[in-house]
């Protein structure tokens, strides 16, 4: 059942991210993960044409490889190969020299997998397009907005509801750029 998979994934993520805060806030990082899962659930309410159980697990676990000490094999043993592969595709390869290369590589890997991985990437960026941290420069904000446009373009056929939602968030984000 989806509730059991949600509980297992959020418990695992909660332990792994227990000392992590949302950037620019004192909020626990689980807030971000649960918001990404919420976006996935709302998308499923609109378009029931994807595996919501897989997508919710990916949403809750999507940053474990990138931001914690979690290893691929640990994820695979606990949640299976499909989840581990999806989380791996959502993880930027730090050995690539630039953020742009990291993003393009991740988008390529996401597009090789099932649509649920792309759905989570869209939901993640929607969630991240909130008011940016006060210390971000206008250049950083512009770059982040452009990156969101690139994500929406690269994943335009994954979920129409989320693509439209991301378009609206990108447009709205302009108010944060001076």
Automatic annotation (TrEMBL):
Entry's Gene Ontology molecular function annotations: guanosine-3',5'-bis(diphosphate) 3'-diphosphatase activity
Pfam families for this protein: HD_4
InterPro entries: MESH1
Protein keywords: Coiled coil
Ranges in coiled-coil conformation: 58-172
Keyword Coiled coil part of the UniProt annotation: yes
Identification of the protein by name: HD domain-containing protein
